[in-house]
Specification:
The mean pLDDT is 79. The protein has 69 residues and is an all-alpha fold. The radius of gyration is 27 Å and the shape is rod-shaped.
Length: 69
């Protein structure tokens, strides 16, 4: 014997739709806040060392680079 949808289940589903929209809106706002707090990029990747981020040398001449044997 199968049962139809109950009133409680129907109301829970009906209230879940607006709650999902509110949750999506809140998550979108936190993404915008995070992007505004992130520091802006300085320079380009071709002007900075890929290992330490210094601007005075390239990756191949970095003092932090491991020596090649």
């Amino acid at each position: 014997m199968t049962q139809g949808a109950s009133r409680r289940g129907f109301l829970a589903g009906l209230l879940a739709v607006p709650a999902a929209f509110v949750g999506a809106r809140a998550l979108g706002a936190t993404g915008r806040i995070a992007r505004s707090l992130r520091p802006r990029a300085r320079g380009r990747s071709s002007t900075r060392c890929a290992i330490c981020g210094a601007e005075d040398h390239a990756m191949l001449r970095c003092p932090r680079a491991p020596e090649v044997i």
